[in-house]
């Protein structure tokens, strides 16, 4: 009397684990940004842009979000900043306060990191003079130049990108973003119109003065994407 070998039972826990692993590895895109990118966000205001990406990705483990403000300044300036900050941290983000965009390459944590995308939305030093004033424009140009120089140091060389989203028009074109980038070895490879509707929940903040928590008119805005110039 022959006996048939019993078929091995399927390991449901193993297949379940594999499917969960595949889900974790699935790449999710939001606008220009992917859950597979290691992303540094600079000058984040109330952290609403960072949080928009984190919610879209389902996690913020790939995100480092920074602001020049201290924790105490965030409380005073923005109604939602602390709640947004806490949610980012709960989702796994590193959140750093008191980070100056023009010296961040020397920050004790950031100096150990390299990023696929470094993003600065609407950089601005604050209103020391009227917006069209030559001194005001010079200060903003210095901010952008300092940021780009530091971002270049923190960028992954292979397919790394620095993104600056910026209002365009007569006044803002005088900031000379592309020219400033060229002088420090960065080249613009793409410009694309910025639409806030792509990033639900993001609110651009004035960040300065008594109306720091108010939004400002974006008008016509563009995201400039820079890469490190390849050596000939």
Automatic annotation (TrEMBL):
It holds the Pfam family BMT5-like. Residues 1-22 are annotated as: Disordered. Residues 1-17 have a biased composition (Low complexity). InterPro entries: BMT5-like. Residues 40-206 form the 25S rRNA (uridine-N(3))-methyltransferase BMT5-like domain. GO terms for molecular function: rRNA (uridine-N3-)-methyltransferase activity. One of its GO terms (biological process) is rRNA base methylation. GO terms for cellular component: cytoplasm. PANTHER family: 25S RRNA (URIDINE-N(3))-METHYLTRANSFERASE BMT5-LIKE DOMAIN-CONTAINING PROTEIN (PTHR11538:SF63), PHENYLALANYL-TRNA SYNTHETASE (PTHR11538). This is 25S rRNA (uridine-N(3))-methyltransferase BMT5-like domain-containing protein.
């Amino acid at each position: 009397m022959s006996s048939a070998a019993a078929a091995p039972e399927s390991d449901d826990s193993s297949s379940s684990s594999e499917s969960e692993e595949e889900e974790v590895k699935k790449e999710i895109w939001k606008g220009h940004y992917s859950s597979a990118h290691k992303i540094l966000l600079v000058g984040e205001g109330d952290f609403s842009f960072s949080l928009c990406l984190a919610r879209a990705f389902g996690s913020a483990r790939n995100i480092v979000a920074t602001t020049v403000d201290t924790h105490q300044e965030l409380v005073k300036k923005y109604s939602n900043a602390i709640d947004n900050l806490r949610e980012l941290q709960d989702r796994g983000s590193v959140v750093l306060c008191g980070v100056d965009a023009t010296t961040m390459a020397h920050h004790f944590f950031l100096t150990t990191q390299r990023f696929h995308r470094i993003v600065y939305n609407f950089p601005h030093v604050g209103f020391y003079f009227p917006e069209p004033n030559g001194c005001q424009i010079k200060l903003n140009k210095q901010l952008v130049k300092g940021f780009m120089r530091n971002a270049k140091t923190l960028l992954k060389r292979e397919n790394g990108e620095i993104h600056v989203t910026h209002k365009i028009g007569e006044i803002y074109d005088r900031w000379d973003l592309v020219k400033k980038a060229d002088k420090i070895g960065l080249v613009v490879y793409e410009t694309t119109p910025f639409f806030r509707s792509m990033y639900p929940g993001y609110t651009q903040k004035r960040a300065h003065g008594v109306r720091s928590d108010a939004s400002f008119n974006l008008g016509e805005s563009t995201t400039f994407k820079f890469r490190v110039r390849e050596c000939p």
